[in-house]
Write a structure and sequence with these properties.
The structure is a single chain. The protein has 3 helices and no strands. It is mostly helical and 67 residues long.
Length: 67
């Protein structure tokens, strides 16, 4: 009994290792993303996004008033 368990574990161990290496989990772009650039660059980007959001909101309000 012990001999068959030992033999089965020796045979199955390489297969399990290959199965884990054969199909790596694909990471999504948002999980793999790391911030790049300096702190100043990040703050400039945030400021630009905020300005763009404000412009879009103002444009939306203008179009809603004209209707």
């Amino acid at each position: 009994m012990l001999r068959t368990l030992l033999g089965a574990s020796v045979v199955l161990t390489p297969l399990a290792a290959l199965a884990q290496k054969a199909a790596p989990a694909k990471q999504h772009h948002y999980t793999a993303h790391k911030p790049t650039g300096s702190y100043r660059s990040q703050m400039r980007h945030r400021s630009n996004m905020s300005k763009q959001r404000a412009r879009a909101g103002a444009e939306h309000m203008r179009t809603m008033r004209q209707q």
